[in-house]
Amino acid sequence: MPRLADAEIVDYRPVAELERVYPMGSIRKISGQLRFDGQVSARGNLTSVTYQLPAEHTSDDAFTAARQALQQQGAELLFWCQARDCGESSLWANEVFGNAKLFGADDRQAYLLLRMAEPRNDTLVALYSITRGNRRAYLHVEQFEVAAPLGELLPTSATLLRQLKSTGKLELPRLAGEPQEAWVTLVSRGLNLDSSLRLIVSGVSAGAWRDALIGKGVRAARLETGALDGKGLKIEVIR
């Protein structure tokens, strides 16, 4: 992942073997316990670095640049939240990342958990960006190499929708065959979170995917079939 020009490393933690839990939902504290809807937990080797960004770069700029760089390497987005959808920044800073520098405004934060593409698909990358009350902006990056195979990990429906609305497309190269029930449910839920979007479904099995999504309650009028080639499944927003 390219480092932003003039960004300063303010915290670096070399490789350490440990048990790690990454939230896949908004976090909150109830009766002294950290709670979130989903998670990925595993044992492995963790490396982390925190950058303080120069005044001309916002935390959103750095977060977007990092996300795009990782997606260009084929990384899959597992969970993505922004602003108050993430929960309290103080909990992310102190409870999840153990770094008080990352405590800032709840509406100026973003978190993303990604899984790298094969052959590094047992490596997770976590990004957390924040702007503090003093307007200093930070980007925290963790790379976690898992000791045992991760197996199948599914993103959240809201993450698929956020990706679709932010980038205009959803590319899922691993979904090359006939529609899988778990993925059909996941994608249809994401699409139905915003019923105003009209979409083009492309890929070798585009017709089968369109039918399967309609079967899960996505209105047929919202879905068009695109090119019947390419790698996996691709869904694009009709502008």
TrEMBL record:
Pfam families per the UniProt record, alphabetical: DUF4892
Superkingdom as given in the UniProt entry: Bacteria
InterPro entries, per the entry: DUF4892
Protein name from the UniProt record: DUF4892 domain-containing protein
Provenance organism: Pseudomonas syringae pv. tomato (strain ATCC BAA-871 / DC3000)
